Amino acid sequence: MTIPTLEPERKYTYQDYLKWPEEERYELINGVPYAMSPAPSRKHQEVTGELFAEFRNYLRNKDCRAYPAPFDVRLFAENKEDDQVINVIQPDITVVCDKDKLDERGCKGTPDLIVEVLSPATGKQDRWLKYKLYERAGVKEYWIVDPMNELVDVFVLNESGKYELIGSYGKDDTVKVGIFDDLTIELNIIFRQ
After folding, report:
1. Where do the Putative restriction endonuclease domain residues begin and end (predicted)?
2. pLDDT in tens, 65-83
3. By C-alpha distance, which of 129, 143, 146 is closest to 89?
């Protein structure tokens, strides 16, 4: 089964999304479907795995939770039915601290932190479309990780609701996670060969 032919003028919803085959992964941004990379590179998976391990280990026995992709995040979905939700994304890593936003299908609402690990097919979406979407949704902290150049850009939502670049970090740097007082991540572990 394949996704039906998409109609360019139509806005799709989470209800539509749920009917599409799982082997063909899409995200919805403002009702527009975007195909996800079919097979991330080995380096992409290694970097994602190492970062997820750091978050998972830190959050053990704490209220917040970290989830790796695939994990549906339905933005602007509070108090809405599936046929009203037009933003469904699958970040590489999602951190949620409000358990009321979690259900059996993922996160319904705004996560606290999102990490996107770039791939050639999705880099533009991560750097622009998702950046603007996450900023508008109020995601407190957004990391864009470039596995090929071994860089991490960290954006934090300021008081006016706009992202500020807190820093660009390389392989030899340590990054403090802004939403937690005592979590730092050494990038030489994340980007190890």
Report:
1. 15-180
2. 999 999 999 999 999 999 9
3. 129
